[in-house]
Amino acid sequence: MATMQQARHELLKSKWTEIIKEQRKSGLAIRKWCEMNQVSAPSFFYWSKVIRQDSLVKAGTMAVTGQACFTEITSEEGRQQPPHQSGICAVIRSHGNEVEIHNGADLATLQSILGLIGHSS
């Protein structure tokens, strides 16, 4: 059973995950966005670190236990690629994780994936 402190931590982590997503969508620098939205920049950086570390711990645990976690990544427009472009053109393996890159993949999606892989190294 989760303690009250653990439950509060998960609630705050969920709240800050949404705040961080909003900042990223804005395209503004973090400090500027925080100032405009009356969000404490030190708290923003703290929770970014907490969320990143929790994600890395979860990924490491899944790698050790052999569990798989899948997520669908779609472009902003949510477009589906025509069938002739859906073949796999590359597979990236890193730290027990595997990412299949399909023909016609969106450049922004590729950059995000490569950035995430770079941060986990």
Report on this structure.
This protein is 57% helix and 11% strand. The chain has 121 residues and is mainly α. It has 2 domains: 1-69, no CATH class; 72-121, no CATH class. The two termini are 33 Å apart. The model has no long low-confidence stretch (mean pLDDT 76). This is Transposase. It comes from Proteiniclasticum aestuarii.
Topology of this structure?
Layout: H1 4-26, H2 30-36, H3 41-65, E1 88-94, E2 97-102, H4 107-120
Antiparallel strand pairs: 1-2
Helix pairs in contact: 1-3
Give the strand line-up of the largest sheet: 1-2
3D shape: globular
Question: Which structural class fits the helix and strand makeup?
Answer: mainly alpha
**Low-pLDDT runs:** none
In short:
With 121 residues, the chain is mostly helical.
Descriptive key words:
single chain, mainly alpha, 4 helices, 121 residues
